[in-house]
Write a structure and sequence with these properties.
Length: about 350
């Protein structure tokens, strides 16, 4: 380990780029001295992106063989891959599905003696303890959890809805059953591929949970000892804007619509909105978010809410897909650096945690 309080991000894609920007812009308030990032491929199309991150104060790292190519592009490389990991206190893996596990085997396991912790993103099931800010903070154990898996954007959304509407008083037995239909955007706005001409439904390949969405949510609450009755279905839509989900929760207790509204208002990680289209909500994020991202865990259009009978809540919610894992990731990085007083350090991100959109 070299510099004090050094956070290193691997991957500069949809999640990596705004994360590096957030860490670099707020490093003083977050208590971080050095932010570095690993970019694998020296693409001429991405020189501007790399330069922008470096202008914010983040240091470029890459593999030994790629150093001369980045230098030819006029970009100064600070450390090669292993040296950067060795120097860092916290390493955040933002690579695509499966690469985080490969990196764990190839690099991270060798640096556990001097690195405080390693964090991976949504697709890396099994990387480490599953985590979402405000959902299972009490499950994190500084002695055990060298590896943390920040759950996916949709798992954040499902989890915060379950926690705030289904069992706001940490009484999971109040939730009899919850069902979700995940309506997913075909691709990220930055992606040219994966165009979808029409909605495409998914398989129910998990006999208990339907799709992995309910299963992932079950697993994160399992870290608290809860055994929830969850089921999900998925459909991909021909949009690049936002994921949406439909939910249905059947509770043991009776509930009214005003009480549902109050529960949503009581959770500061939930945004409510009078808007009903992903288009308008996404556009709000572009105008008022950091790198166009809002950090709220879900956006609930209040006009979509209904109570069926006296104990069943139905509604829709939108997922700030590449925003909500950012806050959880920064929170774990701060926790690794110093587990005390994280909330005070995260206060600088409050302007992007909207309660109303
Ligand atoms: N996209 C979302 O909205 C979203 C939301 C929540 C969570 N996540 C999760 O975040 C993670 C990353 O997703 P993403 O959408 O940000 O990915 P992405 O946009 O495809 O970016 C992947 C990045 O990883 C780098 N990379 C790929 N293979 C690498 C390797 N072997 N070594 C080092 N770097 C490598 C690429 O670098 P080069 O281009 O330089 O080669 C690229 O910068 C996934 O676990 C995903 O599930 C994504």
């Amino acid at each position: 380990m070299g510099d004090a309080k050094h956070v290193h991000v691997i991957g500069t894609g949809t999640i990596g780029e705004p994360l590096i920007g957030l860490l670099a812009d707020f490093r003083e308030q977050l208590g971080i001295n050095v932010v570095s990032f690993h970019k694998r491929t020296p693409l001429t199309t991405e020189v501007a992106k790399v330069r922008s991150m470096m202008d914010r104060g983040a240091l470029l790292c890459t593999d030994e063989a790629a150093i001369p190519k980045f230098e030819d592009q006029g970009l100064k490389v600070s450390w090669e891959t292993e040296e950067a990991i060795d120097r860092a206190d916290v390493v955040i893996d933002c690579t695509p599905s499966g690469v985080g596990h490969e990196n764990k085997n190839k690099y991270y396991e060798r640096f556990t003696h001097n690195t405080k912790g390693f964090i991976a993103q949504g697709s890396e099931f099994g990387f480490g303890k599953m985590y979402a800010r405000g959902i299972n903070d009490e499950a994190l154990d500084p002695k055990e959890d060298k590896f943390v898996h920040v759950v996916s954007c949709n798992t954040h959304n499902i989890s915060v809805l379950l926690k705030s509407l289904g069992f706001p008083n940490n009484n999971p037995e109040n939730l009899l059953e919850a069902k979700f239909v995940m309506m997913r955007r075909a691709s990220d706005t930055s992606q040219d591929g994966d165009f979808l001409p029409a909605p495409k439904v998914g398989k129910h390949d998990d006999p208990r949970f339907g799709t992995h969405h309910a299963r992932d949510a079950w697993h994160i609450f399992q870290t608290l000892g809860y055994d929830l009755n969850l089921y999900s279905s998925a459909v991909k839509l021909n949009t690049q804007y936002m994921h949406a989900l439909w939910f249905n929760m059947r509770l043991k207790e009776k509930i009214t619509l005003p009480q549902v509204m109050q529960r949503l208002k009581d959770n500061r990680r939930i945004a409510t909105t009078e808007k009903t289209s992903a288009n308008q909500i996404y556009s709000f994020g572009r105008d008022h978010g950091h790198y166009g991202r809002i950090l709220s865990q879900t956006v609930v259009p209040v006009k979509s809410l209904s109570v069926v009978g006296d104990n069943e809540i139905v509604g829709f919610a939108f997922t700030p897909q590449d925003g909500n894992p950012l806050l959880s990731t920064v929170a774990v990085a701060c926790w690794y650096l110093d587990p005390n007083d994280i909330s005070a350090r995260l206060d600088c991100l409050k302007p992007y945690l909207f309660h109303e959109i």
